[in-house]
Design a protein that fits this description.
Blueprint lengths: L9 H4 L5 H52 L6 H5 L10 E8 L2 E7 L7 E5 L4 E2 L1
Antiparallel strand pairs: 1-2, 2-3, 3-4
């Protein structure tokens, strides 16, 4: 009697990916992720810095607008919100009246390149 031949062909056995091919693909994806993730985190921290600086600029403008109306600088953030200042979510803003004619604003938010930025009304600079 003749033995029956298997109906499985060579093409049927080679239709999937081998374990080596899958491991190489996963390794390539891991290397690309290792390169991209730190860059993404740097972009994100720069975006947080930009948010804080923009809030400082907007708050300084609102402080000056408030001063032009009332001839005194406001002591709280709520007072400048009434003049049109829109605070960014997550950015903590504090006002420090150093003298009756000068102030310092500080904006803080975690995950920036530094913990906070400050605006000095006497110099007009953000540091």
């Amino acid at each position: 009697m003749l033995a029956k031949r298997s109906s499985v062909t060579v093409a049927d056995r080679d239709s999937g990916f081998s374990l080596i091919e899958l491991l190489v693909t996963i390794a390539i994806i891991a290397v690309l992720a290792a390169i991209a993730l730190p860059q993404f985190m740097a972009y994100r921290s720069h975006a947080v810095d930009a948010q804080m600086k923009e809030d400082l600029k907007s708050a300084a403008l609102a402080m000056e607008s408030y001063f032009s109306d009332k001839k005194i600088y406001p002591a709280t953030v709520a007072e400048i919100v009434a003049t049109g200042f829109n605070q960014t979510d997550g950015v903590a803003l504090t006002i420090d009246l150093t003298t009756p004619s000068s102030y310092t604003l500080t904006a803080a938010k975690p995950s920036g390149s530094q913990a906070s930025f400050s605006y000095d009304s006497t110099t007009g600079s953000i540091y």
